[in-house]
Amino acid sequence: MSDRVFNLADLFEVMADACPDRTALVAGDVRLTYRQLDERTNRVAHHLLDNGIGPGDHVGIYSWNRAEWVESMFGAWKARAVPININYRYVTDELRYLFTNADLVALIVESEFAANVTEVRPDVPTLRHVVSIDGPIDGAVGYEEALASASGDRGFGPRSPDDLYVLYTGGTTGMPKGVMWRSEDIFFGAMGGGNFGGPPITTPDQLAENADKPSMVAIGNAPLMHGGGQWSCCIGFYNGHTYVMYTGRRFDPVAVWTIAERERATSLMVVGDAMARPLAEALATEPGRWDLSTVATIGSGGSILSKAVKTQLREQLPGVVVMDSFGASETGANGSVLDIAGPAAGPRFTMGPHTTVLDDDLRPVTPGSGVVGRLARKGHIPLGYYKDEEKTAATFFVDADGERWVLPGDFATVEADGSIMLLGRGSVSINTGGEKVFPEEVEAALKSHPAVFDAVVVGVPDARFVERVAAIVVPRPGGAPTLEDLAAHCRTLIASYKVPRQLHLVGEIVRTPAAKPDYRWAKARALEGE
Question: Which residues constitute the domain of residue 491?
């Protein structure tokens, strides 16, 4: 019996020892076995420790998807430091806030962002060490130089299941917040617990049994600076699979299918309609171009697929299981989404053993009652938000029985069969004439119209009703849907007060790096037409 604990670095080392010669990571032209990846992450860890960066210190990773992102993340964990995800689309004011709020001690960064780092660094007194991944940056050491001078062996002391995992999330409003998890809790709460889709493991050494199972090849398309990207990567490694990371700067469905064919992929992970619909469209445009006979599943995480897009994918890939799951930075993975009942119905998902819907008194709502409450999770949940006691107190609650819950802000009801019907986030809901409208429901109705390729819905000020529903729509090529067309279609699917009263046709929906709609951009775009 080893002295391994439920620590993210310990668990990776279990798998590296169990299947050292299996391909662990494919990232562009880089291919690394579990042994090679383990050695390179050891070098990252020793470089950090040799420079006085160790347990509890925060290490920023500021880069597009590439192999070094994975190496830096696991290397920091091996040193018991805390990797901090940096959004590569942030402007300098946002970066200055994040670097300072996160108390960054070190930064591993692509040279493309050198100017931003140079501008921000004087305002971050804690930042004392910078590593440049791929080119010169003033005051930084080169990444390969750093690894070459550090040991590739382990030789680390014991780690703890209490070592922190921190994920910065921007949400839909406000500055980013750092969600703090214990290492053990994030492993079980979001990374599959060592047996994705089945009962979690009970001891760290049990993870090695995954090396005896058939190896899968999973393509991850989400950025690693987003939680879903990190979680899908870790799920792959902890199950002994080969993780193929998409490294393109823009999502290119042709490139993704080409990679899937080349790597003989068995699964693809996407983020909602923004990735799934272009993938389906590419297959429809060039049927038979790719040999995708090995693909068994397509899963969406971070954003739920609409029924229209899910149906479209299934039509193009009959026999492939198309599924998605629901989760959040504050809750981890909540459950698996069932098929949506109608084109404008909210997503229903099977409730995990620790997930439910609570009313205002923190009591579970009665199934089938129609009561709208807030999605909640107990068990393996975060400690709170880094340096934000007020936000922590508003999101994490202890009920009358002493049970601790996290309520991230999603509204939902519980169906008679016990499944959860997700309604949407309260932060982007629309109040029109005293009625609450959740944008996701209207967006699903719009996307089921044959002339609509993509859509996002926001509320804009209205003198009579407080707010009215405004739709930002990307039409299909050659299409020009009118407000009257879309309103008539939506009235067959949703209540009349939810139907858009304003329409803006655009060439592209602006989305966050996590492929979620940028509701702040959408609101500004809708107001431009006022």
Answer: 429-528
